[in-house]
Write a structure and sequence with these properties.
about 375 residues; mainly beta; Immunoglobulin-like; Methylamine Dehydrogenase, Chain H; 2 domains; 4-stranded antiparallel beta sheet; 33 strands; about 50% strand
Amino acid sequence: MAPGRRKLLYAAFLLAFLVSAPSVVLFTAGYRLNWHTGDVVQTGLISVSTIPKGADVAVDGQPVGASTPSVVDDVSPGEHVLTLRKDGYLPWEKRLVVESRRTAFAHGTLLYLDAAPLPTFVSPTVAEAAPQAGRFAYTIREGGWLETWVMEPETASRRLLSRIPASDQVLSLSLSPDGSHLALRESGKAGVTLIDTQTGAAAPAARVPGRQEWWEEGGAWRFEDAPDGFALLRERVTGQARLIDLHEPDMPVVLDAVMRSFAWYGERLLYTDGFRLDVFDAEIGTDLELSRQETLVRTLAWHPSGTTALFVQDAGVSAIELDPRGGHVVTRLMEGSGLGTPWVDPKWRTMYVFGEVDGVHGLYARPLQR
């Protein structure tokens, strides 16, 4: 090769090296060219995990070739759509903002089976639930009798608590928050019968002076269930409620809000005024708005994970995530009408709820996890 051509070739290789070497270094360090702006930016990460594991991950509709738990690298700064899919489960999607040299998280994401609710039994006359205790009470007409039963779906056990001749009277049921007692009231009759749900022992309910029990109807305001150190007063008609810190004599009222329905998880209070969903942390005194719904929220409950809330509307039951990053994802779990308070078993596998599905009234079990 002629000396002149050799020098020219050497110069070309040197120029290519000087141009490409910085690009390789920048690429290795996570820098990418933003084709929309023409700027060179440093990428970020998305760390994602799910319950259960093994969901396929896609960013902006493009599979990344990984399943959960995983970390997606080289994600350009800005808003991205994270999608998770697993065979047999409902798809999950959220918009996440990724920042340069930072990690966006979607950890502990609950995925739900794509399954229909199954009837456990049908045609209760009246039903009442104590979700915290995983216990349900219901009445059915059996021959010439009106029977009251208590059921624990997790163990598939049930006990007959009461049997009276069937007539035109209507029974109203009210379970204590811990599910230990059932207050039974017959229409047209004075007084309340209190039944121990473990032993079946029944006795007329007696009022304790100076204290209001959960089954009492009298009075405009009543004390509701609350953790130690707090008292929750709620007005029966309007739902106006005040949460009082018993250890703060100067400013004892820590929350003043309308509560059409509420549920405790430790010292976190999930409540709704009928359309807005909130979580109040009584320990640190913060209130987090989860969502504003367009249709009435009838009742609500906690998922046992404490990371998700369940709420019931006229059309069905939905789950909403508490993680605020990228918005609170809402997943419809089942359709139905006249649905009561849902309850999820401690292993997170099944959600139970009374109501009507496809025109059939009963207790339904909706599979959530395998």
